[in-house]
Amino acid sequence: MMETGNVMIQEQLLSPGADELAAFLRRHTQKRDCLVRVAGLAEVTYHGRATSTVDRGSCPLLLKRDGSVRVHSPKGVESMNWQQRTDDLSAFVEDGQCVLIASRWSWNEVVRMVFLEAALALAFALTEEAGFVLAGSEPGLQGALTRNPNPIGPGLHTLKRESLVDSGGIDLYAQGQQLRYVGVEVRRGRALQDEVSPLGQSVASVQRTVGNAVVREILAAPSITAPAPLQLGTRNFESCGVRTLALPEPKALQPSLFGEGW
To answer: Count of CB atoms within 10 A of residue 186's CB?
Structure first.
């Protein structure tokens, strides 16, 4: 083994043959204790909710500890094939070539990768989990306002996040003082004039549900364009400037599907 910083290389193979590569994949996919990368020429097929084929080409493979599979191309950021929550990974030799099959039973999905010529197989352990926070996204703002709607107005308490109504959905559904219902639309960036009209549809849908109760509609955004306040006023809607919110509470890492400690 070789350790560099927080990365420990467990095994490395250069130009492995089919038998050697299959044994390598079995060894490390059974343990579920490391990240596996294989680079070389391969063919990939997928069957499940759709069907796809990747002809012979350079296809870097990434296998994560939870069984997630990603097959990349030499260019671009998107995967050509990927599969999450893989239930079974198997590697064997067929017609002199190493074959890896990743199966997901709940959707009856199968990714089959045939390694025609492997240049590198690498297994390494990442010894330190990284935290991830995406600041400023609309879901993040929705979550922060759901936990603490006070930046919108005093006395609010959240009833539901992303409430479905006839016209679509309301980002935040709350109730305020004097039992008035409040629908809040959240925008990460500057709100435009044409984003006011959907608020009227949301109010009408909520009003049909709550009867004679008073319904307020608020557009929460860092700022709004100049024509938007006039249109908000003519419809008796309100706006609220929301610029800085507390970061979301840290969430526990998703448990592995392969048991404790993987």
So the answer is: 25
Closest Cα partner for 84 from 102, 99, 101, 100? 102
* Distance between start and end Cα atoms, the chain: 19
Q: What are the residue ranges spanned by the domains of the chain? A: 2-126, 138-241
SS3 47: strand
Q: Hey, what CATH topology would domain 138-241 get?
A: Trna Endonuclease; Chain: A, domain 1 (3.40.1350)
Q: Which of 158, 131, 136, 134 is nearest to 245 (CA)?
A: 136
2-126 fold: Protein Yojf; Chain: A; (2.70.180)
DSSP 137: -
pLDDT digits (tens, 9 = 90+) for 199-209: 666 667 776 77
What pTM value is reported for the model? 0.53
